[in-house]
Amino acid sequence: MDELPGSVGTSGSFSLRLGQTLFSSSSLLFMSFGVEFYSYTTFCYLVTVMGLVIPWSFTLALVDGYSVLVKCPIRQPGVLLIIVVGDWILSTLTLAAACSTASVIDLMLQSHAPFCTPKLCSRYRISAILAFLSWFLSLASSLLNLWLLPSL
Amino acid sequence: MDELPGSVGTSGSFSLRLGQTLFSSSSLLFMSFGVEFYSYTTFCYLVTVMGLVIPWSFTLALVDGYSVLVKCPIRQPGVLLIIVVGDWILSTLTLAAACSTASVIDLMLQSHAPFCTPKLCSRYRISAILAFLSWFLSLASSLLNLWLLPSL
């Protein structure tokens, strides 16, 4: 069987997973480091979702790294299905969190809220952008693995 | 070939499309009828997305109704692919709009914003809930058609 670049067990997938881990960790850090995010439901939601994405992506990055090293990619349809569904659920949650955060920041800036100083708001904004990037990579992983699924 | 309930050209699909049209129209009406939604980017975005979903779902409802009547469902892979991709893009946009609206309403209620009277805010909230329902049906259509795709 041909190897599809980016499907599980390839170096492309390893890069995608590393990117997801990196972007979601940075998003979490920008949101939570020295910032009172817990006053807002939306920001708490983003932090929760990122807390789920980081271990998932990191574990799969380790699996991919191992598969690349031993040159033996995972090809069990059951395992692949779990990965596709997990990726899809997490990417939906990430999209929801990123959109919510972006729209709340937009409203804060629009209404000149006193609780949103320029420095704080730019941090929140960077966090939302990083969450979007994480969503994009997660979606790419999910679609590439879904593409591989019927051929197994 | 067995007919998958809910795939394009079946009465299940017709019901799903009717539901999507109904929910998205109601969401649009609750948001825009006598309410100054255009002051907020998020609400404008919801209205725009609903304005895209309504004609798409309505057209496909007509196609499904016709297919059911003449008992000749569409089975061209190309057409089905366009429907799956279109549904998927619209469901992503709907999810983004619904989450953004929900989080903005939450922030408005939390900060006791003067521009959010209880009557107005409950309208916005109903609109967001209807958008979520529309997303759910749109996703169901997309997944059922995607399931059918490899068998053509």
From TrEMBL, chains A, B:
One of its GO terms (cellular component) is plasma membrane. It comes from the Eukaryota. The chain crosses the membrane at residues 37-58, 78-105, 126-149. Its main location: membrane. Residues 9-137 form the Casparian strip membrane protein domain. InterPro entries: CASP_dom, CASPL-5. This is CASP-like protein.
